[in-house]
Structure formats: C-alpha cells, structure tokens
Design a protein that fits this description.
This protein has 573 residues and is mainly alpha-helical. The protein is 49% helix and 4% strand. Residues 299-334 are annotated as: Disordered.
Length: 573
C-alpha cells in the first residue's frame, strides 16, 4: 500500500512538472503586432520606468556585467534577463505581448526601419547629450548609472551602419555545432553592431535603460532558440565553454544576478520560462534562397564535395591549389581585408614594417587553408613555413633598423615585442641570466621552435582562428561565386514569404540591390565587453567575403534588401 501511494505521489509530481508549461507564450516580431497591442506594449514600458522596475533591471545588468560578457553564460543570462523584463511587464498589464525586433530585416538600411518612427520606439537623440525627444519615450529621465536623459547617438550621425544580413546569421547557425561557438559568434559578431548603431545608452552597460535593448536581445535569444530547434533532441540541453577561456562550465552553474536560478533551468524556454518565438519570415525567406543555391551547387559539384547552405556545411568546398614557391609575396592569396593583421598587431605583437604586415596576412590565409582537403594541406604547409620565415626575418631586421641592436632582455619584457618571447625560449637555455646582446643569426636559429612549437608565434598571433572555423564556413565566398543566376520566381517567393508587395528589381538602382558591408566596431567595445578583437576581426572579414559572394550572384536579392525596397518602392510601382 505504501509503495502504491509513493508511486501515485511520484506520478502526480511528474505530471505537475510536465504540465508546468502547457501553453508557451508566443513572442512575435514587433511589426506583426496590431496597433492596439503595440500601444499596450508601449504604455506598459512607460509604466515600467515610472514604477522603478526598469531602473532595477538596468542596475542588475551593470552590477553583473563583468560576469556576463565574454563568458559562456552570455546567452543564458540574457534569456533569463529578458524573461524578467517580460514578467515585469505582465505584472503591469497581464497578457501584454512581449515582442522582439528582427533587425536582420533592416540590415541593409537600418535607419529606414519603422522602429525609429514615433509609432514605435522613436528616433535619434538631440543635442550634445543625445536626449531622445521623439516617440513614446521622449524626455525620459533615467537614474542608472547616474541621473541623465535617455540618450541615443546613431553611429553615422543621422544614420546607422548596416547590421549582419540574414544570410550571415543563418550561415552561423548552420555552421556552429556547439553552444559556445554560437554564443561567441553572436557576442563577437552581430550583437555589437546593433548596440553601437543606436549608441547613447545602448553603448553602455546600462543599455537596458533603452527599451531597444530588450527588443534587440529578444532577437539574440531567438537566434539561440532557432539554433536549438535545428537539433531539439540535444541542443535544448547543451551548454559548454567552447571558444571561451573560462574553465569548465556546467548547467548547474548559477545565472549571475539570479540566486537559485541555474543555467540548465534556462536552456529550454518552452518549459520553465514558458515561451516560444514566432518567425518574422526572414529566416524562412533566407532558407528558400539557400535551397536554390544548394540545388545549383549540387548540379555543378556532382560527385565532389560541396557546402550545404540551407542544410549546414557537410564539407567545405576545397580551396584552390596554391604554389609553395618561396619567391615573392603570395598576393593572389592575400585577404582583401587587412583588419586581421591590424587587430593582431594592435594586440601587442611587435611593430613590423608594411612588408611584414602583408606577410602576416599571408600567414593568416595559409593557416586558414590548412582546414582544406589533403592536397591543399601539403602545399599550404610548405608555403606557410616559407612565409613564417620571411615574416619573422623581416620583423627582426626591422626592429634593428637604424643601427640598433636587438636587446634580448628588453625584448623579452617589452609589451610591444611580446612575440619574441617564443623565440627567446627556443634560443636561450633555461636559467640564462647573462644580458649580453645576441645577433640576428643567433636568434634566427630558433625560428623552427619559436614558430612551429605548440606555443609558437603563429599560434599566438592567430589565436581564435580555430574558433572561426566553427562559427562561419571558410571559403564560402568562392563557392557562391560559382553559382549561376537566381530566377525571378525565387525572388518572388521571398516577397511572398515576407508578405510584401512585389517590386520590379530591374528598376531598383544597383547600389540598393546589393548587400552592404558591415562596419567594423571600435576596439574599446571589445575591451569593455571582455571580447577578442582578433577573433572579431576574422569574423568581420569572413562576413565581408560572404557578402561579396552573394552580391556576385546575378539576380540574387537578400531578404533584407527585399524588405527595404518593398517599403521604398512597393507602392510606387
């Protein structure tokens, strides 16, 4: 009898646990709300400021900033944080919708978004302080981090630099196989462009002062949610530290700022937190385009490896053959974007000449090629070795320019010559204390150990390269350039999926048909958010390569471009 009662009690508890979220609350894209529901949401936001709850949320974010940003808990914290915001709104107006902002639809021309009108969240700030004086939050006075007006200072004056396009977001989701890879990709990549695009309060740790914060992080949370839905049997339980420097993490870790809340309690929003996201159409439209590209690529690569854009990269297309000749710079393989070299050099790895900077770019490309097929690995290894030698020889000789000798002791301790430490360890025996000056010939004997060892120069300069392989596919730009044209019928499908009036794209100026480049973010942003500027620069370069690839396809029209031109030309045509 006792056993039967225990069984029934356990069954009742299991039933309660499984039914704690029978009807998850849908979170829609804000532009899909009726004018009435949008008005409810905006009125609740005003009351949230008046009752002090918005200040509470901002203070919580400020107090926990160092434990959130640049750590694996980044996505998990903000999921709980946005849900805290939703709970506070529902205490004001039970059942009020809590939307997100799919800024990828506005990626091509963010300033044209409806969200910056008075019917939504208002526009740019005015005056030296950037005080918001339009829209539903006009003349808001904030108390965190100190008394001030709600501020916005768009990063291009009266305009906003482009965001990551939906193609880059879907590509990242398809490429990442681990939670940490996705979290670091979002945090070092697309996340910051929105914060700094709006700027003002949004560029600070008290960014939650601006309601844009919660709509933006609703989108960030949706990126994670959509990634989880791709493999729901495993990803709703997945939490790891890949691509982060943190020690081992666990789902039993506490969420910063929320005592008693464990990370694992936030991994599946469909249960404990009890909500789901409603797609804006951007993701579905992007998948339609990727399916067409996959179809064409499959025909051209019959019998060979190919990269699936709609279904995830199963095997990246092989890199073109490379010459291993040491003669001359490998200009044909040099990345067009020099941000990679600039970021690595700015981190304190010496001050080489322009020629050395070019050679560093070559090294970056060569190392990237090592992820290709076996044939390319052999030639890449030989070319890499030659470029390593050339780079370091030039750097060393440049350091001794003007008749100066190279002081090993100073080089070992100097911040701007940190790269020499690897060479010194390879040349000078342990315990060596003599401060005599060594010649370049002595130092160059340590090239092999200093460059190719496990703590070698290349590994130090290019830290984060392995992360990029997991976040965005390499060589995608070249793959896309091999694709034929996109038929008008496919473009019309994109208009239909987004529920927008069709536009004759042949009448749209070419500049508006193209996906624009994403602006690089300033180094202070990465420093303040515990991020890796070198890693971010690599992501930035890869997104530009991807954009070039899509723009090279005749007839290709991004969902972000479709959204923009439909608003601008839809009624006129």
């Amino acid at each position: 009898m006792a056993k039967s009662l225990l069984f029934l009690a356990a069954l009742c508890l299991a039933t309660v646990a499984n039914s704690q979220c029978m009807n998850p609350t849908p979170r829609p894209e804000i532009r899909s709300l009726s004018s009435e529901d949008r008005g409810r949401f905006l009125r609740a936001l005003n009351q949230l400021r008046s009752n002090g709850e918005l200040a509470r949320l901002s203070r919580l974010h400020v107090d926990n900033a160092d434990n959130i940003h640049g750590h694996p808990v980044f996505l998990a914290f903000h999921r709980v944080f946005v849900n805290d915001f939703a709970t506070a709104l529902n205490k004001i107006d039970p059942g009020v919708p809590v939307p997100y902002w799919d800024w990828s639809l506005d990626a091509s021309n963010p300033i044209s978004s409806e969200l910056f009108t008075n019917d939504y969240l208002g526009g740019n700030g005015m005056g030296d302080q950037g005080c918001v004086q339009s829209g539903p939050f006009a003349n808001w006075q904030m108390s965190v981090d100190s008394p001030h007006c709600l501020s916005r200072k768009f990063n291009q004056g009266d305009s906003i630099a482009p965001f990551w396009p939906p193609e880059a977001l879907l590509s990242m989701q398809k490429t990442c196989s681990q939670y940490g890879a996705l979290s670091s990709g979002i945090e070092n990549g697309c996340h910051g462009a929105v914060h700094l695009g709006i700027s003002g309060d949004m560029s600070t740790m008290f960014a939650p002062n601006d309601p844009f914060f919660f709509l933006h992080h609703g989108m960030v949370d949706k990126l994670w949610y959509d990634w989880q839905l791709m493999e729901p049997n495993t990803r709703f339980q997945q939490y790891d530290n890949s691509n982060y420097k943190d020690a081992q993490v666990s789902g039993d870790d506490n969420v910063p700022g929320y005592p008693g809340m464990r990370v694992k309690d936030a991994l599946d929003p469909r249960s404990g937190l009890c909500y789901i996201y409603v797609d804006s159409g951007s993701r579905a439209a992007t998948k339609r385009l990727m399916q067409e590209i996959d179809r064409q690529a499959a025909g051209k690569n019959a019998g060979g490896p190919m990269s699936s854009l709609a279904g995830g990269p199963t095997q990246l297309a092989s890199s073109p053959p490379m010459s291993s000749s040491p003669a001359g710079p490998l200009s044909s393989m040099r990345p067009q974007n020099t941000d990679i070299a600039a970021a690595a050099l700015a981190s304190g790895n010496g001050s080489p000449s322009a020629e050395s900077a070019s050679q560093l770019n070559d090294i970056t490309t060569q190392v990237s090629r090592l992820s290709g097929n076996d044939d390319s690995k052999a030639s890449a290894s030989a070319a890499l070795h030659n470029q390593q030698i050339n780079f370091l020889q030039n750097t060393l000789l440049n350091s001794m320019a003007g008749g100066r000798t190279l002081d090993i002791a100073n080089a070992f301790h100097g911040r701007r010559h940190r790269f020499l430490r690897r060479l010194v360890n390879a040349v000078v025996p342990r315990g060596y204390t003599d401060d005599k000056t060594l010649g370049s010939s002595d130092i160059l004997t340590g090239l092999v150990g200093g460059l190719l060892g496990k703590d070698g120069l290349v590994g130090h300069l290019l830290q984060g390269l392995g992360h990029v392989v997991e976040v965005l596919p390499q060589g995608l730009g070249e793959t896309l350039k091999a694709v034929g044209s996109i038929a008008e019928g496919v473009t019309n499908d994109v208009f239909d999926i987004l529920k927008l009036p069709k536009v004759d794209m042949s009448k749209v100026p070419e500049a508006e048909r193209r996906i624009p480049y994403v602006a690089a973010l300033p180094n202070w942003w990465y420093e303040h958010n515990n991020l890796n500027a070198t890693y971010a620069a690599q992501l930035h370069a890869q997104v530009h390569d991807m954009i070039d690839g899509y723009n090279s396809i005749p007839g290709y029209v991004s969902p972000a471009v479709v959204h923009y031109v439909a608003k601008k030309y839809g009624k006129a045509q």
